[in-house]
Every structure is written in structure tokens, then in C-alpha cells.
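Workshop exercise sheet. Pairs work together: one partner reads the sequence aloud, the other fills in the structure field after running the prediction. Swap roles for the next sheet.
Pair: D.N. / O.F.
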Amino acid sequence: MKQTAIVILNYNGLDMLQRYLPSVIAHSWEQASVIVADNASTDGSVAWLRTNYPDMKLITLDRNYGFAEGYNRALKQVEAEYYVLLNSDVEVTEGWLTPLLEFMNSHNNAAACQPKLLSADDKTHFEYAGACGGYLDKYGYPFCRGRIFDTVEADNHQYDTTTEVLWATGACLMIRSTDYWRVGGLDARFFAHNEEIDLCWRLHHQQRLSYCVPASRVYHVGGGTLPKDNPMKTFLNFRNNLTMLYKNLPEEELKPVMRMRWFLDYLAAIQTLILNRHWGDCKAIFKARRAFNKWKHDFDSDRSEIQRSMAATSKGTASYSILWKYYVCRRRRYSDL
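Structure field:
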């Protein structure tokens, strides 16, 4: 058994597998096993894999379980010290695994880490989904070293130091298998979006930390399953982000943050309609708010357990509003915060 298992979750991503799986195998096979888990694709992905990579382990799931439950079901069938959750639209580079493995092997407090995530379309810039590691502001808005909202920075090596972050991107996430299962894996109810942030935040509460190791770099296409302007993506992001806050915020912060988010979310819905004329996104935000209110008490036991296990010094979120920094103070780069 190899120390590391790279698991690619696929759903109708045949074109991405054809483009990027060869690079994963070429630059990884000596250090890791490569496994594809298929979420009941209908585009011929499984037949192509069986024809072209007959010796590679293939896990076939009986339906599309989404990102979160798809990985949970797949990883139950994988034995390794480290899992690497890798999107099918990621191009890896020669030697990419070595810095991640060396870091994890020498830092026992690290539960997870990610490489520097650059754009496959413009390799001089960071990629939106994770850049050089992620954080949350005081109201739960994610941002990254190298990306705040829609401002994505050029990579001028300004974030090349290995740094603790709150969350590591699910596009390319190395995590200890013991830590993954310590907190029950990804929350399957999320289906997709924000699930890796929730996972890393739950681990952070137990002083199991996440890092970015930029000596490793990969290139990510992004938006392969759901484009950025898809209303379903908007719905999942808003619903899951609110749910994640409900689960993880310390008791004294929950009510004030949720009150402010009520105002900010409806402001965002109005803004998408009036300024951007995105009626679908506007409806998706209203729908997400309703869905969150309908199911939030399903997470009461999760919240109670997290509060009980939370380390005394654990918080996770920043002390400031990234909206204020970005729109009022005009600070568009992470280094300016």
C-alpha cells in the first residue's frame, strides 16, 4: 500500500480526464496510487477509463452523490495515510507531490494542505477556487491569498511562503485519512460547494490545522461542472455557507452574524437584479435563504457537538469584514488587508 492515494471524483468529465489524467499519472505514480471514483457518469467516462487505464483502480458509484457524499463513499474504499482529493480539471506539474508530502510528514499538527493553485487558462495568475489558501471574514465570506471576490491577482511569488490558512481548496486537497474520518468526512448534505471549508473549519476547532505549501503548484480550469454564473451554483454557495456558519460559529457570535447576513444576503439579491440583471441569481439567493431556514435545525446536533469539542482558543474567522475592506477601503489584494 502506498502512503498516498490520489482520488479523482468524476461526473461526466470525460473531456477533462482525457486532457489532465495523463499528467496526474506521469507526475504522481511513483509516489501515489491514482484512483478515479465515478459518480454514475453517462458520457462514456467509465468505458474510456477501462479501455485506456485497465490497471488503474476505478470506483463506480450507483448514482450522482455530488462532491461531498461522492468522496465519502469513495474514500471508504481507499486505504492510505494521505488522501489527495483532486478535481478532474487539474493539471499537475513535475514534482508537485514532494513538497506536500515532505510538509505533512514533518508537521504532525497539520491535518491538510494544498498547493499553489494557478489558472489553467492564464498560468501567470492564481485560480479563483483556492489560490494560495483560504480564509473567512467575520460574516463568513471566503477569500484567499491571491483572490478576493472577483479580483484574482497575478502570481509574482508574493505568497510563496508556506502559511497556515483556515481552509484548503477542495480542488486539490491533501488530508490525513485519520483527520478526514475524525470529523466524519465531508458533510454529505451540502452536496457541493463550501464543503471543504466546513471540513477544514471543523478540524481547526480541534486544533488540526490547514496550510498552503506553494512550493507545489498545479493548474486548475475551474467551473467544469457548474459555471460560475449558474443559479444552482449561487443557490448552493449561499445555502451551504449559511449552514456552515450555523454549525461552526462560537455561540456568542452566531446571532449577530446571522442578523447581519440576513441584511447582506438580501442586499446581494437586489444588487444582482438591479445592477447585473441576473434574475436567476436573485431568485437563487431567496431560495437559498428559505432552504437554510427550513433545514437549519437538522444541524443542531452537529452544532452542539462542535461547540463541545471546540478548543478554547478556536475561532477561525477574521475579525474584519472583507466587504468593507474591498468595497469601501478599496483593498483588492490580500497583501493590502
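Discussion prompt: The longest helix spans residues 251-274. What would you look at next?
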